[in-house]
Design brief:
Distance between the termini: 48 Å
Order of helices and strands: HHHHHHHHHHHHHHHH
Number of helices: 16
Largest sheet: none
Shape: globular
Structural class: mainly alpha
Helix content: over 70%
Length: 399
C-alpha cells in the first residue's frame, strides 16, 4: 500500500514538472518582449504576437485536439504531448525571424491545449476518489510555481545570456518531464470517454454555458491587455531598470499564487457571487493603474494588486462551469472544462492583441483602462448570470 502511494506521488510530481514547463512557456514571452523586439528588429507590438498567437493555439488545441486524440491511451498521448512541446520550444530557441518564432509558438501551444485537458484526469486517476481534488492541486502546483519562478527566471536568463537561451532552458525542463513521465506514470490508466464534436456543439449552444465562456474570456483576459506589455511598461513608463523587471515579475507571480488560493476559498460556496465582486475590484484596479504607473511606489503597489486579482477568478470559473455542465449537459462535463480552458486562452489572445493595438495607437499606459473596460463587461455579464441563476433556482423550488 505504501509503495503504491509513493508511486502515485512520484507520478504526480512528474505531471507537475510537465505543468511547470508548459506554464513557463505560455508567459515567458512577457518578460522577453523587449529582447525579442530588439534582436529580430520588430516592434514591441509585433513581438507581442508571441503571446496572442500562443493563446490562440491553445484556444483551438484544447477542445478540438482533445476530441481527435480521445481514443489514444493517456500515457502514450502524454508522452507525445511532451515530444511536440520539446520540438516547438527547440524551434523557438533557434528562430532567426519572427515568422519562425510564431510558428514555434503555435506548435508548443497545441501541446499545451491537450495537456491542460488530460492532465487533471490523469492526476485524478492516480489516486482514490476521496483524494482526487488534492491530486489535481499537486499537478497544478507546477503551473503556480511556473508563474512565480519560471517566468522571472526565464526573463533573467534572457537578459543575461539572450532570449534564445531562455527557450533552450525550457527545452531542458521538457526533456526532464518526458523522461519522468515515461518512467513514473503508469500504463494502466483508465481510458478517456471519447469526446465528440456533438458534445462541444451542445455546450456552446447552451445559453447559460455560452454566457460563462464569454465571462471567462473577458474577465480573465482583461488583465492581459496590460500584462502582455508589463516589461516595457515597467521600464519605459514607471522607470524601473531592465534588471529590476525580473524581480518585479517574481513579486507579481507570488501575488498571482496568493490570489489563486484566496479565490479558491472564496468560491467554494457561491462561486458566481464571488466572481461578481472579484471582477468589480479587478476593474477598479485596472482603471486606477493609469494614474499610478508613472510613479514607482504607487505603480508597483497597483501592479501587485493587479497580480493578486489576475488569477483569483480561475477557481470560481472552473467550479461554476462544472456546475452548469452537470446541470445542463451532464454527459459532457470534461468537454465543458476543455472549452473553458479554450475561453481562458481566447481571453489572453484578445487581451494581448488589444494591448498591441492600444500600444501602437495611443501608447503603453492606455492599456490599463482598455483592460478595465474588458473586465467591466465581465462584471455586467456576471450580474446578468446571477439574475438568471436566481430565476432558475426559483423555478426549481416551484417544481
Amino acid at each position: 500500500m505504501s509503495n503504491q502511494k509513493n508511486s502515485s506521488m512520484y507520478a504526480l510530481l512528474a505531471l507537475a514538472v510537465s505543468a511547470f514547463a508548459i506554464g513557463t512557456t505560455e508567459f515567458i514571452s512577457v518578460g522577453l518582449l523587449p529582447l525579442i523586439s530588439k534582436d529580430l528588429h520588430v516592434s514591441i507590438t509585433a513581438a507581442g504576437l508571441t503571446v496572442s498567437i500562443y493563446a490562440l493555439g491553445v484556444t483551438v488545441g484544447a477542445p478540438v485536439l482533445t476530441s481527435i486524440t480521445s481514443s489514444i491511451s493517456r500515457k502514450t498521448l502524454l508522452l507525445w504531448i511532451m515530444i511536440v512541446f520539446i520540438i516547438g520550444n527547440s524551434i523557438a530557441a533557434m528562430a532567426g525571424s519572427l515568422t519562425v518564432l510564431l510558428t514555434a509558438r503555435i506548435i508548443s501551444a497545441l501541446a499545451h491545449g491537450i495537456f491542460m485537458s488530460i492532465g487533471s484526469t490523469i492526476a485524478a486517476d492516480l489516486v482514490s476518489k476521496d483524494k482526487r481534488a488534492s491530486a489535481i492541486s499537486i499537478m497544478f502546483t507546477g503551473l503556480t510555481v511556473a508563474t512565480i519562478t519560471g517566468v522571472p527566471i526565464g526573463t533573467f536568463i534572457g537578459q543575461q545570456f539572450g532570449w534564445r537561451l531562455a527557450f533552450f532552458a525550457i527545452v531542458v525542463v521538457g526533456v526532464i518531464a518526458f523522461i519522468a513521465n515515461s518512467i513514473l506514470v503508469p500504463k494502466n490508466l483508465s481510458q478517456a470517454k471519447p469526446a465528440t464534436f456533438k458534445d462541444q456543439l451542445r455546450l456552446v449552444t447552451n445559453g447559460r454555458l455560452l454566457l460563462l465562456f464569454i465571462i471567462t474570456a473577458l474577465g480573465y483576459g482583461g488583465t492581459f491587455v496590460v500584462f502582455t506589455y508589463l516589461s516595457p511598461l515597467l521600464h519605459e513608463v514607471t522607470g524601473f531598470k531592465e534588471g529590476t523587471v525580473a524581480g518585479i515579475l517574481l513579486l507579481y507571480g507570488a501575488a498571482i499564487a496568493a490570489g489563486n488560493m484566496i479565490g479558491g476559498r472564496l468560491s467554494n460556496k457561491k462561486p458566481l457571487t464571488a466572481l461578481f465582486y472579484m471582477f468589480m475590484i479587478q476593474a477598479v484596479i485596472l482603471f486606477l493603474l493609469i494614474f499610478a504607473l508613472p510613479y514607482k511606489g504607487a505603480g508597483l503597489a497597483m501592479i501587485v494588486l493587479m497580480g493578486l486579482l489576475a488569477f483569483m477568478n480561475v477557481p470560481g470559473l472552473q467550479v461554476y462551469v462544472v456546475m452548469l455542465a452537470e446541470r445542463y449537459v451532464p454527459g459532457a462535463v470534461d468537454v465543458a472544462s476543455a472549452i473553458n480552458i479554450a475561453a481562458f486562452n481566447a481571453g489572453i489572445a484578445i487581451g494581448s492583441y488589444l494591448g498591441g493595438v492600444v500600444t501602437n495607437s495611443l501608447g503603453l499606459i492606455h492599456t490599463a483602462w482598455v483592460g478595465g473596460i474588458m473586465v467591466t463587461a465581465a462584471v455586467l455579464l456576471t450580474g446578468w448570470s446571477l439574475i438568471l441563476e436566481k430565476k432558475s433556482n426559483k423555478e426549481e423550488w416551484g417544481n
